[in-house]
Amino acid sequence: MKCFVTGASGFVGSNLVAELLRAGHEVKALCRKNSLRLGLDGLDCEIVEGDIRNRPGLERALRGSEWCFHTAASYHLWLRDYAPMYEDNVEGTRNVLNAARMAGCSRVVYTSTVGCIGLPQDGKNPVQPTDETAPVSESQMSNHYKRSKWKAEGVALNMAQQGVPVVIVNPSAPIGPRDAKPTPTGQVIVDLLSGRMPAFLDTGLNWVHVRDVACGHILAASKGRIGERYILGNAQGNWSMGETLKLIAEIGGSKAPLFRIPYALAYAAALCNESLSWLTGTPPRAPLAGVKMARYKMYFNPAKAIQELGMPQTSPRQAFEDAIAWFSTNGYLSKPQRR
User: Fold this and answer.
1) At residue 309, what are phi and psi to the nearest 5 degrees?
2) What would the mean pLDDT of 15-32 be, rounded to a whole number?
3) Is the dihedral angle over the CA atoms 151, 101, 2, 307 positive or is it negative?
4) Residues 6 or more apart in contact with residue 242 via CB below 8 angstroms
5) 95, 52 contact by CB (below 8 A)
6) Nearest-CA neighbor of 67 among 38, 125, 27, 123?
7) 3-state class of 69 per DSSP?
8) Nearest to 289 by CA among 307, 304, 308, 267
């Protein structure tokens, strides 16, 4: 297949490009002019410079493509002005899907997030992971990033109803190689193994190998039902942050932080940090939006993607091993790690 990938220089995007090439597909990779392209190093794809806000440019770039994968997104938990993020995530999605329709793509895979899936019920012990049927409303979108992605998912669902062959995927917390920026989850690894994490705020995430997420996108294009959502996660990947940090420390030959920050203290610190950021313009190290999200165990059930798509289930431990090896090889860790 001739494939078009937006956000190709990003974490999920670059791994998707790698898996598409491995499967024998042709790939045209859309990247912004000044994007960091370390994740695309060594990949034999055609790079096209462009912007998802430029619909005419998208229509030209997409000509001749059979599958379109829209992974590009603006991800920020704090900004002085959130309007550009909505422009990218909502109107950018509309532009890409319209351009894919004009190109006659037989499948369009839109990359959403589990942030658009209803969270497990608070207070239940043990926590019951939720699936694609969990109810959610705009009021549950606790920050502008989630709200913008929720609105973008609405655009995708609406266009599927209009006949655009859109399949939606909702990755959980990917981890693995090619995390060039790195992402907030990858930063957890870098900070811990570089000795910059004296304490932690406990939460819960569903960890999944980014390679499995990339394969899930391809499976969604070939097997996914139009207008359906699929959680791309790992059935054994629902771990608390405390458990996660112990594993990272074990693999990387370091020590996990012992002090768990109380939620109220983290909330107060984030308020102070954001107040300072409004004065300086420098993003806060611990945004209030991130602290609010950490209050809940974000555990999810990917059974639908496993059963309908055949999504692979690489062990989360392997995902962390691969991520740590990549960060170490590419100079992200400030001190050598014992093996």
Assistant:
1) -100, -25
2) 98
3) positive
4) 200, 202, 256, 260
5) yes
6) 27
7) strand
8) 267
